[in-house]
Amino acid sequence: MNQDYIQADEWSIIEEGFDKQHVKASESLFSLGNGAMGQRANFEETYTGETFQGSYIAGVYYPDKTRVGWWKNGYPEYFAKVLNAPNWIGIKVFVNGHEFDLATCTKVSGYKRELNMKEGWHKRTFSAVLPNTIEIKVEVTRFLSLKLDEVGAIEFKLTLPNSDAEVSFVPYLDSGITNEDSNWDDKFWNTTNVSTSGNRAFIEAHTMKTNFKTCAFMQASLDYNGKSIQGKLEESQENFISMKFSQKIKRGEDLTLVKFGGYTVSRNHDEGELVSAANQALDQASILGFKGLLEEQKQAWANIWEMSDIVIEGDIKAQQGIRFNIFQLNQTYLGTDSRLNIGPKGFTGEKYGGSTYWDTEAYCIPFYMATKDEKVARKLLKYRYNHLEKAIVNAQKLGFSNGAALYPMVTMNGEECHNEWEITFEEIHRNGAIAFAIYNYYRYTGDYSYIPEMGLEVLIGIARFWHQRANFSGHKKKYVILGVTGPNEYENNVNNNWYTNYLAQWCINFAIEQLGRVKEGYPNDYKRVVGKTNLTPTECEAWKKVADNMYFPYSDEYKVFLQQDGFLDKDLVKVSDLNKTERPINQKWSWDRILRSPYIKQADVLQGFYFFEDNFSTEELEKHFDFYEPFTVHESSLSPCVHSIQAAKLGRMDQAYQFYLRTSRLDLDDYNKEVEEGLHITSMAGTWMSIVEGFGEMRVINDQLSFNPRIPEQWNAYSFKVNFRNRIIKVKVSADEVTFEMTGEKGILIMVKGKQRELLPNNKLTVG
Amino acid sequence: MNQDYIQADEWSIIEEGFDKQHVKASESLFSLGNGAMGQRANFEETYTGETFQGSYIAGVYYPDKTRVGWWKNGYPEYFAKVLNAPNWIGIKVFVNGHEFDLATCTKVSGYKRELNMKEGWHKRTFSAVLPNTIEIKVEVTRFLSLKLDEVGAIEFKLTLPNSDAEVSFVPYLDSGITNEDSNWDDKFWNTTNVSTSGNRAFIEAHTMKTNFKTCAFMQASLDYNGKSIQGKLEESQENFISMKFSQKIKRGEDLTLVKFGGYTVSRNHDEGELVSAANQALDQASILGFKGLLEEQKQAWANIWEMSDIVIEGDIKAQQGIRFNIFQLNQTYLGTDSRLNIGPKGFTGEKYGGSTYWDTEAYCIPFYMATKDEKVARKLLKYRYNHLEKAIVNAQKLGFSNGAALYPMVTMNGEECHNEWEITFEEIHRNGAIAFAIYNYYRYTGDYSYIPEMGLEVLIGIARFWHQRANFSGHKKKYVILGVTGPNEYENNVNNNWYTNYLAQWCINFAIEQLGRVKEGYPNDYKRVVGKTNLTPTECEAWKKVADNMYFPYSDEYKVFLQQDGFLDKDLVKVSDLNKTERPINQKWSWDRILRSPYIKQADVLQGFYFFEDNFSTEELEKHFDFYEPFTVHESSLSPCVHSIQAAKLGRMDQAYQFYLRTSRLDLDDYNKEVEEGLHITSMAGTWMSIVEGFGEMRVINDQLSFNPRIPEQWNAYSFKVNFRNRIIKVKVSADEVTFEMTGEKGILIMVKGKQRELLPNNKLTVG
């Protein structure tokens, strides 16, 4: 895909012209979601060209049996894959008995697709000439309702500009679907009932093995000149049901089919009540009608944007980028259900599987903390607390004991479900991100209560893990951590990854600090937790010994911490000296070549500098940034945002801006040539950070918000809002000044460019 | 399995008593093979207990599609798996209509199983009481003919000691078989024809994907009191055919069913001629009859033993061990077909897949060179020459160029077919073993011709690989080799594995040396090879620069070369201090724990000392042996033999003896608790080396054989023969003296304990 494929627009993603080569990419980019379900932007009508069909239900997954040539002890039995759910959007369209299919039309003109992010809907308009020479004009609008999150709505409007003909619509449900991404050749849906009632139909199906019960449903109605045309049941098979609506129409007349559809699932309803719940949802949708439900949709999105919008003036592409990121994050996770989490591809694809990675703690929590109520972030923390026992079991599998906890690299339900040894067994820094998020949550919200109630137990399990995972090197006379994979997954099984060692040390110190604080301030919780975990002072001393004597690889020559032992033995050719045809290296190079190269997939040492910036001087940051960035290929979506933030801090606004574009338009401009597989959802929170924490340099320092805003020269102004301790603070930055406004009852002290200022309700504060 | 399960016997493997728990282990241990086919010692009659059914045809394999969670560039598309072939041994037995099955008999007594290694046959004798209370006495003899290597023979003798009854034999062929080891759920045999002719039957089937055509065949005849009983076709299905022979017999009478069976394959016959070839093979077998064919078998094995036997006096278990190893090697590979190689499990199991590993060059060639004609070793070298182009393509896949060759880690046909990245992409030392074998072959046989004819090209491809694979470390100011897996596969993706670096240096130097020698002595070959490879002096200089400046990790503290960078950072707890319940660690520990431990799967640095012992003093060997052996768990079958040889060299005969038992009785005593999966064939050549090169300390020094024999105190004497440059030299070692005898036309100078001696034909040389 080229960079100009998507039209620049402040509020919409727009594609003009129909190009079969772009269908799969656009199916990703125009995806819809409402937190409870989501789907790729597949066409409603039959399409026989290349397509990647996907409709997903939050929390519904399938366990792919782990299949490897050589089993290694400790492998999880399965990999939980995001699962393509029964299709409810399908509407076959026939004109004089000939099926309409964009892949076979002799001409397609005026094709335009719009994803309206402001209002939360997707629309296609075009004219097409069928092989039988009849031309049709089509306008199809679709959205997944935020108001009724089990329901989606489609309005399919068809006109015949040049001829009379009989038009038939065949809306259907289909549970005979497959997955794009593995599931090998397993059948994974078991359809138990196909039924119909009036203009409604239902397919009840449950997932094999995991036994999630679902009911896919639909209701269809056809309008012809304000008259409702009756449909009839067409086909009812084992896993398919369709209705048929036919009408002869004259040139210039139009027909409008409205289809409501969606899923009810056993996560939310008694499993015997799925059909009746579906009927209720359809009743509610019917009362509002397509237009009424769409109005509700606009309002619901307006409410989301009211709090989370970032406005950029003077740079449409940058504006479009950030809104795309915020929109997709909100389509994926709204913080309403503590059993859910934020899958790396959201509802836009299947790759990676699982719903929860360290991305949630490292990237997403800051976004949700600032743009929603703090309860949303607390829900995400609680999710990990709920999985603590499973993290302990996971660590036991790998040979750890005494309550040491290793959180899974990938999970749906707390169990590890990733099966590459170098990741599952070795990418243990994830444990650190979870501890960091506890710290970050408290730092931002001031709500300490999570720690005595739940967090302390998590911190103890994590400290125990690090204590056991390190070993004393008689050679170095220090504790070392051998055989790990850092955030830079282009290195596997390395020794003394600086980031991991640093996190390990930090986690132990943080746990000990919180033990002290809880002991003092929450003696009952302390007693409960110490009793439950059998923690003794001797054990804490043993932890401390490891933290105090941790080894950190360092180069005297370059005066930088080394990403890992031996990093300087590599052939240190900078990325800029690589031939462009070699990139992305993960598509061009064999794995061994990547591993022995110096190339960094995503910030690793710099990720540590990002988390713990207070512990390093700006000069140190600059030295490390200048050493590592030239070797960084940013082939992880999580990389550019951290670099953007750090470049901004170093006052390198051009570089920060380039990284900003790369993170915000990663998918829109398909930097890594993989958008067909789906969007990179979790890194989208990093895009938000790159504006707020990067350009805005927002920090929390000693319970105060601090800002040191900069602006890229390409922009006239930008503004964002954050929810900080029950105040909504709006920040607007232009080249000349920064203005702050707040809503809330009481004023607040903030730091601006190093100086303390008082911000009062309804009283604009301007700093020149 | 316990150590005393197999009866000690000089010439036979004997199991007494029927134990269902041991069936799978015994199926491995009693396996039969004749180089062209082989099979686990499955019962002929139906057995419903736990069993691992396996019958294998040399060179017939199936490509399992590579299935990994995350595809890495360079992965081979498939893993060639050893394939269970149609069953031809099956004979159902019914007594008064009740099927005989050892799993359901109410009593089994006098059960004895013997694998007679001297004569090459397998026999079971026992009495069993069927659920219908009838007792039967059974004696079943089976062998795979060396004389007619497409044919196997079974004699099934049944007597009724206590009652009259009707006995039916139902010999059958069955191509509806599955694989024990993956092939996922693929169907992999396609049966095309099932036919019968008189007392013969045929199933023609070909492998899916690889399209190897085979005909499994059988012929059966029943003898009752010297009278031949006619059978009739019983069942003929899509992939099954059986005949039925029934006879009422009286108490004390016996019935003998003789079944010939086997395979004809398209590797050896026109694919339209497989049935007629089968008929010819059966004709030949019929002429000889079971007894005649068995006599031929005894003679053929006598010929093999004549040259390859090692006699150990005074230690039956040691004797049995070495013969078991020599027997199995000869069952697996006889050196008659240069398209075949020596699979790690031979015909005894499916694990590992592929037929060719570096085991062939590092372990098997010395055995075959000394116990067969030198042409056999040359065939094995030629096998690799034939695959040079594929090795170049393999290297290209991984990003190498200019004719660099990387031989596959595992192959059936020259293509890489292993798909763990840490092995396939990184265990590159295999390239060195192939170069070493060229050197070793020439050193032993004195036949230089392979090098100008073929070997030089191989050496150039390998040198090019090492040159490109190393990189200059600006930090170390040396060439380093990053991201490798050494012979010790309990380390992955390490930097500067000493063994690999040493081999790389040696390969380059050896290639350059041979280039000089060929240029001088074989100018036409030189011209041809240089022309074909576009080799220039500048390129050789570049190689040389890498070799001359290779980095070797070394510890000043311990005065040893380090297995790899960072080895000393490990928690250096010796194996002897590990709790026994933790072992074998590959069954008890997670992979990450193994990787970060100091434990060594098999000799790594010591493997280098073994290959290149002339380059190190005995003191250096001792220092390295004492440093590394205490961390070695020997969980690779290839480990104890090298240690035995080196312990003997260091005069530590007790330790050498223990390692000898471990290598020679690895499977018989099931040291690694995995014999059910099949035998460790390639390491059996290491057992041979541990006597000849270890206790006998046989070397070739400047074109002379040299001996420095020692004897374990548990032995009275041992003797072996080697074929050295057209002389057969027999060596017998006792505590007091060593005697040498030779056959051949001309005498030869040998070194004994450092002194030169002349050995003349038919003239015993005794050294006190």
From TrEMBL, chains A, B:
Pfam families: Glyco_hydro_65C, Glyco_hydro_65m, Glyco_hydro_65N. The keyword Hydrolase applies. Residues 14-267 form the Glycoside hydrolase family 65 N-terminal domain. GO terms for molecular function: hydrolase activity. Keywords: Hydrolase. SUPFAM superfamilies: Galactose mutarotase-like, Six-hairpin glycosidases. Residues 323-689 form the Glycoside hydrolase family 65 central catalytic domain. It comes from the Bacteria. The keyword Hydrolase applies. InterPro entries: 6-hairpin_glycosidase_sf, 6hp_glycosidase-like_sf, Gal_mutarotase_sf_dom, GH65_N, Glyco_hydro_65_C, Glyco_hydro_65_M, Glyco_hydro_65_N, Malt_Pase/Glycosyl_Hdrlase. Residues 698-756 form the Glycoside hydrolase family 65 C-terminal domain. NCBIfam families: PRK13807.1 (NF010380). Belongs to the glycosyl hydrolase 65 family. This is Glycoside hydrolase family 65 protein. It comes from Maribacter cobaltidurans.
